[in-house]
Amino acid sequence: MARTKQTRHVTPASNETHCMLLETLPGALFVVDDDATIVYANARAQTMLGSTRGNVYGQPFWRCASRLVSPSLYQAVQRTRQTHEPTEVAYLSPATNLWLYASLSSTPQGLALLFQEHREPQPFYAENRAEQMYRDLLESFADGVTILTPDGLILDINQRPLLDAHLRREEVVGTPYTDLPAWSSDSDVQEHLRSAIVRASTGETVRFEAHIHPRADLDLDLLMTITSHRDANQQVEYLICAGRDITERKQAEDERRTLVDAIPQFVWIAEPDGSLTYNNRRLIDYLAITHEQAEGSGWLAGVHPDDRSCVWKMWQTSIRTGEPYEVEHRMQDGTSGVYRWFLVRGVPQRNAQGTILRWVGTCTDIEDQKRVEEALRQSQERANALMNSTIIGIFVTDDDQVVEANETYLRMTGYTRDDLRQGRINWVHMTPPEYAIQTQQARQELSVTYHVTRYEKEYICKDGSRLPVVVGGVALRLNPLQVMGFVLDNSAHKELEQRKDAFISMASHELKTPLTALKLQTTLLQRQLARQGIPASAPALSSMESQINKVTRLVGELLDVSKIQAGRLEYIREPVDLDALLQEVIDTLQQTNPSHTLVVHGAVQASLIGDPDRLGQVFINLISNAIKYSPDADTVKIDLSSSKDVLTVSICDHGLGIPREQHDKIFERFYRVSGSRQKAFPGLGMGLYIVSEIVKGHGGTITVDSTIGQGSTFTVTLPRTRDV
Ligand code: ADP
Description:
Radius of gyration: 61 Å
Oligomer: single chain
Distance between the termini: 196 Å
Bound molecules: adenosine-5'-diphosphate
Number of strands: 27
Structural class: alpha+beta
């Protein structure tokens, strides 16, 4: 009998049986679907998580099983999903510090994960060491390190961020990283992180700075770096998120920025390519634009149009060559529209390899400095123009030495520039002895008033010749005396004066001879007519004689002036009875001037040695002037007095008076007081000049005291025993 194949019917175990079986497993079993949602967890699994069935079903595994979660597990899950091959993984639970051994296998709905816990590492697992190292390493970082799924769920996190946030690991594992209070307290910061995670999940390394609040009373600045880990298929498996605490650096930077904003200079920072990335507050305020407007090359709009192309060219050159940038240009005050000058400097900051990292620069306001420079330049130009003057000789002396001189000065004096360099021009040596006193006085004046009133002198030139000059100057320094002097060649003027003097001298001599003859003839004629008894012609002849006398006196004065000029006015020396001399003069003048009464007060009662004719001339002149210039008055007072040393004669009238500022001038040659009233009186301005010369010649003085409209008093003093 043929054996027929028997088919054994096995009744499949019921679902319930399966479940019971699963419950008996020695480990904790989870079944999760493709979304990692827990669809099954056996009793041990529940116990391991410390929750009830109802609590875990339908929950996300990564969140719910936080004490089991680790990057190794996550990796294993991913691997099993891809390969559908069973996978085993051993790792140290960061939460319990127990070793976990997980066996993962693919199921139709998703994955089954079977966990076993051990206190000690199981010797047959190769990963033990690596896992231990991974954990130690993670905690050894000073930075906060978080491992994320590409979706941003926390797989692992070290203690640093947990401590900052006062959180426990279990509270955060499996939750979105962006939901940590540190990030969620500021929606902008949270959004920034979210997009950074999205970018990092594509494989990009993302770096950014963030200001976070791990808890209400803690602020931190972090430098975040998110990198991705790829699996064998180059798929991004998980993200490593490192947060470095840069709070201190940021604070220092903030302090620096505050400082930089506070300093009076403008500060800017540019990229190696020259585009501006930072301007301090002051620069922004000055330009009156926003940071954004100034960025790149926006700042160029604030540069003066005339300077713009040059500035741009120089900036480009510096960027190209790496040479420091330095340029002066005008920048517009955005508020007022006014341009001011700035000195703009930039230096490259390089790394250890010498590559330029950035340009750091400043702008310094040099408007005032520019103005001073401009003023200085102008004054220098003016000084140069003056120095180059072909009219004025200019020199500088240090003590007696001429140390600087312009060409005109050298030409005048005949010295060369080489003489000047060799110190061969000496101020004192150039001064003739007769000018020594005057020069000394000039020095005195300089040291008191810092300047010297112009005066006439002569220079001894290099070739020994004399050059008449007019000199003036200012003291640049007193001790030792440094003077800047100005010299005008006075020779043409002097020559003209000499010619004039020569003419006056000649003319007066030429006039004197025929006048003397005329006078003689008149006298003879007078006598003849008187003898012949023709008295009718007498008045005419006497008038002729008086006119001739007037002309004779004028010619005499002219002659005196020219003698004084030539230094040839001589005085005879004999005892003079001044009272008698004055009485004689007064008697004569009283006869010819009946309009005024000449009143004498006092007497000198002394004699002196002098020239009686010349002294007589002095008083005739003064009394004649007193009568002439007081047409409305009827007296002239003459006061005589004497002291131990001097005899004093004052002539006082009640006439026109002389303006104060002309009191000194009236004693100068040919000077006449200006003003129509005075001009109405005939005269040549020689009298007082001769008078003062004669008085000086007798060692005396003459002064005037006068008030306009009230009259004048001329006072002559003569030394009592003058040996002329
Ligand atoms: P002049 O020939 O012009 O009188 P003087 O040398 O005698 O020349 O006098 C100089 C000037 O001084 C005169 O032109 C006159 O203006 C003024 N002056 C001289 N004496 C008197 C005086 N007593 N009162 C007013 N002015 C006088």
